[in-house]
Amino acid sequence: MYAHQTKLASEEVQELRREGGRYIRELREAAGLSQRQLAALIQVEFYTFVSQIETGRGRIPPDSYRIWAEALGVDVKDFVRSLMRFYDPVTYGILFVEADAAIPANAA
Questions:
Q1: Sign of dihedral through CA atoms 37, 41, 47, 49?
Q2: What digits encode the pLDDT tens for the residues 67-79?
Q3: Opening angle at CA 45, ends 43 and 51, nearest 5
Q4: Which H or E run includes 71?
């Protein structure tokens, strides 16, 4: 995630990547796609790339977010917001968690 990570931070990053991978696998399975079918839809040569993403050993490149969302049949903004929880939790927290916490419950 970031340069100069401590061992603990590195373990936390790996766990977030695994959670992100599970999220992707759940979306793929909900869409009724195999890893090979998804690989074809996102135009990658090897289905093992999908496997690496799903096991947390890789991450989806940002320039591919839209094609992944379309292939999985999900809204691209919701997809990217969800990915941000796993790939960039600091920014996600600033944009979505802290902002939500700052709004009083009775203001809605």
A1: negative
A2: 999 999 999 999 9
A3: 95
A4: helix 65-72
Cβ neighbours, 10 Å, residue 55: 14
Q: Are 87 and 59 in contact (CB under 8 A)?
A: yes
Where are the chain's structural domains? 7-107
Q: Which CATH class is domain 7-107?
A: mainly alpha
Does residue 49 carry a pLDDT above 60? yes
Instruction: Return the SS3 of 61.
Output: coil
- Given a contact cutoff of 8 angstroms between Cβ atoms, the answer to whether 27 and 51 are in contact is no
Is residue 47 within 8 Å of residue 36, measured between CB atoms?
yes
pLDDT at residue number 24: 98
